[in-house]
Amino acid sequence: MKGTSAGTARLTRVLLALLALLAAALGYMGVRGLHVQTDSGFKYEGTFQAIYALSGDTAAAWEKLKPAAEKLPEAERGAFDGAVLTLLADAWDTLMGEGAGEEARALASSDGGMACRLLYATCTPYLSNGKLKLAKSARDALTALPQEELPALRSELIRCLTDPEAEVPAALEKAAQGDARGIALAQALFVTAGSEAAAASEAATVIRKEIAASDTALSVKAAVFRMAAEHGISFVWQFIVNHARTVIAAGVLLLLDTVLLALLMFREKRWAFDIKWILILLIADFLLYFLLLPLVYLMIRAFSDNGVFSLERFRHLFENPDNRTALFTTLAAAAATMVLGTLLAFPLAWLVGRTNLYGKKFFRSLFVLTYMVPPYVGAMAWQQLLNPNVGMINRVLRAVFALGDGPGPLNIYTVPGLIWALTTFYYPYAFITISRAMEKMDPSLEEASRISGASPVRTVLRVTLPLMTPSLIAGALLVFVSAASCYGIPSIIAGGTTGMYTVTTRIKEIYSSGQQNLNDATGLAVILMAIALVILFVSDVLLARRQYTTVSGKSVSPAMVDLRRWRVPLTVLVVVFALVVIFLPFWTILSISLKSDMGKSLFAAGNFTLQNWGVIFENATLISLRNSLVFAAIAASVGIVIACVMSHLLQRTRIRGRGIPNFLITLGSGTPSVVIALGLIMTMSGSFGLNIVGTASIIVIAYMIKYLMMGMRTVVSAMSQIHVSLEESSQISGAGWLRTMRRITGPLILPSIAAGWFLIFIPCFYELSMTVLLFSSGTQTIGVQLYQYWSTHSNAVGCAMAFGILAAVAVLNFILGRLTKGKFSI
Amino acid sequence: MATVTIKHVTKSFGTTTVLKDFNETFGDGEFVTLLGPSGCGKTTMLRMIAGFERPTEGEILIDDQVVSGGKTFVPPEKRSVGMVFQSYAVWPHMTVFDNVAYPLTIRKEAKGDIRQKVERVLDVVHLRQYAGRFPNQLSGGQQQRVALARALVAAPKLLLLDEPLSNLDAKLRESMRFEIKEIQKALGITVVYVTHDQTEAMAMSDRIFLINRGEVQQSGTPEEIYNTPANQFVADFLGKVDFFKGEVKDGRILLAGMDGQSIPYDGPLTGRVDVAIRPENLRFRDDGELKGVLEAQYYLGDVDDCRVRVGDVLVRVITGGSKYGKLKTGEKVRLAIRDFMVFADDGSLEQMLEIRT
């Protein structure tokens, strides 16, 4: 027992036992609640959080609607109820699958008001501004009818509702066609309900907004359940029943934490609640729930068929040729990008880091900064430059080599085109890894080789290169996994029309086409995840062990190789490379955004316009800009707090268990974005306690999981630079922990904390891969907005938006550079 | 075996001159030490001999061949020089054997010869049994010896050592010192050795170049520069010394601040002088010239380190350890001066000593 008395130890153990009991109780109550849910006769599980969000509004809407329904003449009531029931059963069958209608009818037939409310909740999206709304002319025609004609019309409507064969009134002929018939008739019925119609439609709008904030179909189901739940369940039970899964989840997490805590205390032989352990567990809980659970769920889903291990899903997956091409394209393109990117990055890193190339400092920051450019921006530029018909480079090539008017010679919509776009974006990843290793290398290792008689070239081959191999492989693998999990570039280049797919675009496509094929998407995501995790393991565990620490005690700047007569030609080569790979795409984006006719030169008479820029300053952009800023700021702020806590735990304590959250954070950053997003969608829709699909929270959580690592690494490295003795000498001078933090540690690492904040903020700000799966109306971000402009407006508007994002990122980078004096660790 | 001729070499980085007009010849088989405080330019000189830096002015010859100077520049790999770096610079991705064999494989020697030569040199540095290990499995001292073996394996005519022992612990440093010296004697090789440790320089060198602020202050055998230092800096840098201001008057030096006490002097200097006395040259003797009070004494085992207040000045005295305990703190004592050095006082003493780091 270190530092704890036997009494404290006993108390701690009792507390632990109580916690375990509480966890068990929560779990038990949750399970009971779940039983109540299933026993209530509903086969279809909804999410009870959404129910709460909706409950107030549905009740209010019903209050407003009730007078309209009650206005019906006594004679009509029975028929009306019958019609409503029919309609309800239909709606339920469509929305929730065969058989649900019978359940609804059984539930509603006992209570006419209940039936109306169910119907209302079910059909709300369609009752006012929904897709199937009555044309305005039809509504006007209906309301314009004289008061005395209304009863007759209403009888007619009800007759039509009960009898599918009956002919609809003339005013509704257009609207009430095919599937829309029932809804249109019902809508007409409400519209004709007299002066209350306006109130009803207003209430419906309120509800519709609520529903839009969540996934429509699910919320509708949820609303229905809410009403069922209100029907005869007491308040406390109602809460437990409604939140059954949340309660179970809380219980399981608490139990897990308690067991872990007990284990840690046992291993440390220190039976006291250490605040550090609580912090570790809190961070670990967050990641366990939002990262590990989704990943494990995806795996289980991919490998099981009704609870039995099976490869059936993969067989089905590979039967579809689109899936096969997607996998092949992804692997081939990522491998080619890896080879090409590394082949580009190594000589560039060597030239910039180890020779007397002209302007090498400028080139270095240029190559590093392109790391911060959103991938889709580059892809858009290359799509414009290498379009087989109108691409600028193709037109120039055709003119120079007199190739005639046909398409080509280059085509971006091919696998080589995709590889090219991926390479120009991902080579900086390898460049950064390699040049960092080059800078860290002790120059006397190379000098020792020179003095042993080896020429500079031979020294590079025999000493520099072998020493760099682990970093080189790590850089190459990083390029591979980033290229394979990239969504932005293939989504622009390998769009639907080209018939070219990558795993990421295929997952998005499957997801958008509906829930039925999600199994295929899960399978693809699991394959992508497996690739990424293997690579993460190889580079973080195997390679890290072989990483040579070659930092010398003496601060000698690395030996510079004199290029002599090669100095000018090689500088020219690097300039050309920078022009083609960096300036040409950016110029293309900017110039297209300012052209009214994309085919003509920017300087052609009358071709200059600011119209495209005008479009992006409309409301939609501003909303998405606000969303992006808010989401990224929240993710960065919460993230940096976690990063600071983790840095302290990792750098300043030797507490057992600090590796757990560290491992999970690394895992999160190594998991492909698409996989994180898909996993969250599939697990956070209520089945495991929370239903946050479609909300802003799910987006922010996804951002944090993916980019927390960026901030953490910055703060950790800053903290490792500050020798403990600096803090200790403050303590020995009489300053307490808090004062030491405020006066010594804080000021020393504050710039790095700010830099870490920006390193989380920037990628979140322009994020696309995850947001494109997670957003819903109201939570779209600038990345999504750009994508919509690109595909629905014109490329020119898309380019304007892209350049705007680029400018914003450039400003953010500038701030970051100032904060860290140009030295940020990525 | 080789001579190194350095002709009026000056080295500047931008506007800072780190080495001024170095002009010297290192003889064949000589063990030469470049000694000085850090930043004095000694490492730069060594790196110019190796060919990692080029002189701004002047030229360097190894034997009779110009290796740096004018338009001629022989790159390091063509100089056939061995070098040991301060950070060892043992390649972590190669075994001890491969590290040591490297210079020979570069020369494309036959496999059998390489094995034989590497094993021989590993015997010399007592590392035969570690040949198959990787550097991270070796201690600092062993890595150091790998670096030495690598520098020696190709039988270079000239061996350059850049503070090779500064990262080792005291005990190991002392034994390595003699090992290096033994190897040099056995091979008869020319060695240029850079260090800031005066004991190391004294123990190993045939000739020491004491450098400060880019200029050679004095060169000579260890004995010469210890006993007849050219200026106050040299006297201060080598060994321990106390300085006293004084004035020559009537064949005696009147020491300032010592209650008018004086010591006999028959040298050529007149007027204001700096007197430098090494602590080991003072003795407690009842008939000593100086009167003072014993203020403190520290027992160091082999010697006794004492502080004696003479007038306003605190004087350091190092005597044999057997004295400890025989004198009491606060006791009146007399000191006999066995030997002392006198420099003309041009007012530059403080400035000269200040740069010592």
Per-chain topology:
The complex is a heterodimer of chains A (826) and B (357).
Chain A: H1 6-39, H2 48-70, H3 74-96, H4 100-108, H5 112-127, H6 136-144, H7 150-162, H8 181-191, H9 196-212, H10 216-230, H11 235-242, H12 244-268, H13 275-303, E1 304-305, E2 308-309, H14 312-319, H15 321-354, H16 360-369, H17 375-385, H18 392-401, H19 415-440, H20 443-451, H21 456-484, H22 488-493, H23 503-512, H24 518-546, H25 567-593, H26 611-616, H27 619-652, H28 659-670, H29 673-683, H30 696-721, H31 724-732, H32 737-765, H33 771-774, H34 782-792, H35 795-819
Antiparallel strand pairs in A: 1-2
Chain B: E1 4-13, E2 16-26, E3 31-35, H1 42-50, E4 57-62, E5 65-69, E6 72-73, E7 81-84, H2 96-106, H3 111-124, H4 140-152, E8 158-162, H5 170-187, E9 190-195, H6 198-204, E10 207-212, E11 215-220, H7 222-227, H8 232-237, E12 242-249, E13 252-255, E14 262-264, E15 271-277, E16 282-284, E17 290-299, E18 303-310, E19 313-320, E20 332-337, E21 341-344, H9 349-354
Helix pairs in contact in B: 2-3, 2-4, 3-4
How would you describe this structure to a colleague?
The complex is a heterodimer of chains A (826) and B (357). With 826 residues, chain A is mainly α. Helix content of chain A is 74%, strand content 0%. Chain A has 3 domains: 36-243, no CATH class; 321-553 and 569-593, MetI-like fold, CATH 1.10.3720; 616-819, MetI-like (MetI-like fold), CATH 1.10.3720.10. Chain A has helices at residues 6-39, 48-70, 74-96, 100-108, 112-127, 136-144, 150-162, 181-191, 196-212, 216-230, 235-242, 244-268, 275-303, 312-319, 321-354, 360-369, 375-385, 392-401, 415-440, 443-451, 456-484, 488-493, 503-512, 518-546, 567-593, 611-616, 619-652, 659-670, 673-683, 696-721, 724-732, 737-765, 771-774, 782-792, 795-819, and strands at 304-305, 308-309. In chain A, a hairpin with a 2-residue loop joins strand 1 and strand 2 (308-309). In chain A, helix 7 (150-162) packs antiparallel against helix 8 (181-191) and helix 13 (275-303) crosses helix 29. The longest helix of chain A is centred in the N-terminal third of the chain and has 34 residues, at 6-39. The radius of gyration of chain A is 32 Å and the shape is globular. Chain B has 357 residues and is an alpha+beta fold. Helices cover 25% and strands 36% of the residues of chain B. Chain B contains 9 helices and 21 strands. Chain B has helices spanning 42-50, 96-106, 111-124, 140-152, 170-187, 198-204, 222-227, 232-237, 349-354, and strands spanning 4-13, 16-26, 31-35, 57-62, 65-69, 72-73, 81-84, 158-162, 190-195, 207-212, 215-220, 242-249, 252-255, 262-264, 271-277, 282-284, 290-299, 303-310, 313-320, 332-337, 341-344. In chain B, a hairpin with a 6-residue loop joins strand 13 and strand 14. The longest helix of chain B is centred in the middle third of the chain and has 18 residues, at 170-187. Chain B is globular. The model of chain B has no long low-confidence stretch (mean pLDDT 86). Chains A and B meet through helix 20 and helix 21 of A and strand 7, helix 2 and helix 4 of B.
